[in-house]
Design goal:
Blueprint lengths: L1 H5 L2 H56 L3 H14 L4 E6 L4 E6 L7 E9 L2 E10 L2 H47 L2 H10 L3 H10 L3 H4 L12 E10 L1 H6 L5 H21 L2 E7 L2 E6 L5 H22 L9 E10 L13 H12 L6 E5 H4 L2 H4 L16 E3 L5 H18 L7
Parallel strand pairs: 8-9
Antiparallel strand pairs: 1-2, 1-4, 3-4, 5-7, 5-8, 6-7, 9-10
Helix pairs in contact: 2-3, 2-4, 4-6, 9-10, 10-14
């Protein structure tokens, strides 16, 4: 069974369908053959007993007269007209009186009836039936049904193969969307079964990071804290006066795609708040998951920009900073919804401008002290670099989370590169 499970669905499912149809069909053939044999035996027994009784009545008068020639003539006539193989007449002591046909074969089955003369039993008639013809008919019946079962099993195999082929193509296409190019050949060589290969592909994806966070109900107060990620496009500030309008639009479009792809992974919303600066806000309020989403989003932007840097001649330098800011519960009803965030945005922008090496991600020191985030942040890699506030530069997350982010970054790069043109 395990060997069948390792086979491709295009082979295992048709084989199982054909095997099931064959087993079911042969079971039905067996039941039909057994039932037919019982019915044939009962019919032959009834016929032979009736024939023996009829012969016993017909020959009773010639036997009373001891006219053995008439008895033999009766037996020959019954033998020609009936389906019996042989007929024997025995006296009361079992000695043969007359016989017709073949009565010596061991495979013949005999059916007897008493011969009555004047109310006394004078002997008995034995009618022998040859079962060879019935057995041949029975085998022809079995062979014809078996051939029909074989044809139905072949149709089940071909039908299942045609249906499964479409499903296999859909699974392969689905797996190609989730698998990197450098992993396709490796996984295909290990897993012949499409479901097993798809399961292995899904197992290698950063599903823990891609899970949507459950929304937290709003607090009763007018303001809630929300993580804010400010992305400063350092390279765009340098290129704005040097690139043509077409190249500048293409460059800004690429930067937007990087930030937008990372933000969508973690439920972030983009908005331009300063020249060369984009703000990413997250829906969850004041929860460790929302803060972690902001940190993961920043790291994913940095890794994606660094990965795409090798495929373009222009610099993709970004500087990011994260902080918790108070936002109103019903922000959509405000005439100026970002008014209360201006000081926080200016503080984050000053932090980004003070970075000495790119790309960089800064978080406030109070977030580094959060026990819920200690398991995900590599505290030994955090350094005091910014001259604005208590921001610390985050070098990396824990190794397993960095691996997942790197894999996620490769998926984004793979999706962006077909549309990318060399500057």
């Amino acid at each position: 069974m395990k060997r069948i499970e390792r086979l491709s669905l295009s082979r295992s499912v048709p084989l199982l369908a054909a095997s099931g149809a064959l087993v079911l069909g042969l079971s039905i053939v067996g039941f039909a053959a057994t039932s037919s044999g019982y019915l044939q035996q009962a019919r032959d027994s009834s016929y032979a007993e009736s024939l023996a009784t009829q012969i016993a009545v017909s020959i009773s008068e010639p036997l009373q007269r001891s006219d053995l020639l008439s008895v033999r003539a009766f037996l020959d006539r019954y033998l020609r007209q009936a389906l019996a193989a042989g007929i024997s007449i025995l006296d009361i002591e079992g000695n043969p009186i007359a016989a017709a046909g073949d009565t010596s074969e061991m495979q013949l089955e005999g059916f007897s009836a008493p011969i009555s003369i004047g109310g006394d039993i004078a002997g008995r008639v034995i009618v022998y039936l040859d079962g060879q013809q019935q057995r041949e008919s029975q085998w022809r019946f079995i062979f014809s049904l078996s051939a029909l079962v074989g044809a139905l099993s072949l149709l089940a195999y071909l039908g299942a193969k045609a249906i499964v082929r479409r499903q296999v193509e859909a699974l392969e296409q689905m797996r190609s969307y989730l698998t990197l190019d450098n992993a396709n050949d490796f996984e295909q060589s290990i897993h012949e079964n499409e479901l097993t290969a798809l399961e292995a592909t899904i197992g290698s994806l950063p599903l823990e990071l891609l899970k949507a966070q459950a929304p937290v109900p709003s607090a009763a107060s007018d303001f809630n804290e929300r993580p804010l990620l400010l992305v400063h496009l350092a390279s765009l500030a340098r290129y704005v006066n040097t690139l043509s309008e077409t190249n500048l639009h293409r460059y800004s479009r690429r930067m937007q795609q990087i930030i937008h792809a990372a933000a969508r992974c973690y439920g972030g919303t983009l908005s331009v708040v300063r020249p060369y600066a984009i703000m990413v806000t997250f829906d969850d309020h004041a929860t460790e998951s929302a803060v972690l989403n902001a940190i993961n989003c920043g790291r994913l932007i940095a890794l994606t920009a660094k990965g795409l840097q090798a495929h373009t001649s222009l610099s993709l330098d970004v500087v990011m900073a994260i902080n918790l800011c108070e936002t109103p519960v019903d922000e959509q009803d405000d005439v100026y919804p970002a008014l209360h965030l201006q000081d926080s945005i200016d503080e984050l922008r000053e932090c980004c401008l003070s970075a000495t090496s790119l790309p960089a991600l800064f978080i406030p020191g109070r977030l580094a002290d959060n026990e819920a985030l200690r398991a995900d942040i590599d505290l030994d890699q955090m350094i005091q670099e910014s001259t604005s506030g208590d921001f610390l530069r985050l070098q990396s997350l824990r190794p397993d989370r960095e691996t997942l982010l790197a894999h996620q970054s490769e998926l984004i790069i793979k999706r962006m590169r077909p549309a990318e043109k060399k500057e």
